[in-house]
């Protein structure tokens, strides 16, 4: 086989299987090759099996007009990441708007999350275009795929109570399908665990319905696997017979998290230079803004926030760094491996985090703290991974036929549909040495925490109360070291249904005679029910007559409602006055208690004076006629005397005599005269 004339600098390793070998060459030769045949990128989508976006409201995949190419033959590198549960997951094609073409997302070494199996995504034709359907990590115990109707819009609004401690992270709520309807399961605080990152529950859109992925524990980015840089191939380059490709340029995981973006409508993370404002308008979100918003959850950013929880300025620095790179183009990292190689050493020394990628041989030889460990990939394992690649493609094609060829479900479907599915070739298995597979930064025994039990949703579809404290139990707390080093298999999150109450057998036998005695009582109650039937029928017309009155009273109630509302402010204003008067009432209470004995002492005197008043009552009644007879005579006799005195006295004297009159008598002469008369009558008696 003839070798190509253009060589790529430090990007491809020699391949012993497949027929094509590319050897590293000089930097000047790399520039010519990168512009014509292929180009290794230092930015682009992250493999979905390594990290996938989580949206509160699932969206459909992107649509493109171009048809994706056939999958290329990809061979794993010669260096394998250490670990019993580490496998090779092959790459796939992804659409790039800047290239206006497809780019190849290189395969990855993946430390499989416990109890999970990988379901790869695929491209499918949709109305003359091609649409992407994202992959997901399913439970290994699931033998059926449950395609559900579209869930309602999420009502997740963040924490509603304070965290129990700074060691807790908020797990968002989600809709749960139960009893032919959706019920809301509220969020809760979950205790974090070192070297483990919890992935909350979410939904994945497919052509046949929505697939629910329950929450699970995964490894953090530092120990999750090895990501290789994406590559742009010219169509004439990969279409040659016998072409195969082996990636060898590793993305630096310690740097790419500083340049991490999310694109929810594609289900992918992106790393590198996507700082320009036009990317935000196209649906690219910076990691800090997506996690703090109400669009979805970013477990990677959440785990980093927890690690830096004691640094109060960490989130602010992330925000300021993004804004600085957005406004200064020269502060952004290079987009290609060739541009990174041409970067002067002085620029790298300025600490701008530009080293997004480095060759695999350099990474494997560096056994520093916090870096992944590698071992040579022998020939049997290489052949096993090549055979597994064919099984993965076969499994993906089976999923595509199940979700597209079998017929797309209507958008307004209201029922679930269970379809039998085979087990994925990439499935996690129980590992006895899983505690040694985490990042080398931890110096303690790795303990796999069990999946938190978020509780059951309300069967009636009513939203549950959010904010309950549910902490995952930590497995492996036995006294022996063997149990401490063993990673337990996470419990499967089963949607709880109605509980069946079982009655013990003796109780059932005792209840049987009671049921036999109950029929005579029912027969005796039957005549009473028949007698009550006519009374119910007679009362029916009265109820019907009362119905119009109730309807007439309804407008009056509605009219009275504004008056009640108007009176409400007055009541509220009077409330302070009542509160102010309360102390006065309390102060007056002792005075009332002191006056109580005096009132009790005066009570006998009142009772003694009561007979005298009763004896004087007849005398008053006898004197009443005499008073009535005497009043006209006295008035007639006094009238001439008054007239004579008025004529005899001149006007000035009368004016002077007026002040001598008693003011009290003038104000109420009848009262004064009556009093005098009463005194005279009493004296006469």
Features:
alpha+beta; 4-stranded antiparallel β-sheet; 16 helices; 35 strands; disordered N terminus
Plain-language structure description:
With 685 residues, the chain is an alpha+beta fold. Helices cover 40% and strands 18% of the residues. A four-stranded antiparallel β-sheet has the order 2-29-28-30. A hairpin with a 4-residue loop joins strand 8 and strand 9. The longest helix is centred in the C-terminal third of the chain and has 144 residues, at 505-648. Residues 1-35, 431-511 and 651-661 have low confidence and may be disordered.
State the separation between the terminal residues, measured CA to CA: 157 Å
- Report the portion of residues in β strands: 15-25%
Could you report the average pLDDT, rounded to the nearest whole number? 74
Oligomer: single chain
Fraction in helix: 25-40%
Query: What is the tally of helical segments?
Result: 16
Rounded to an integer, what's the Rg over CA atoms?
A: 47 Å
Strand order of the largest sheet: 2-29-28-30
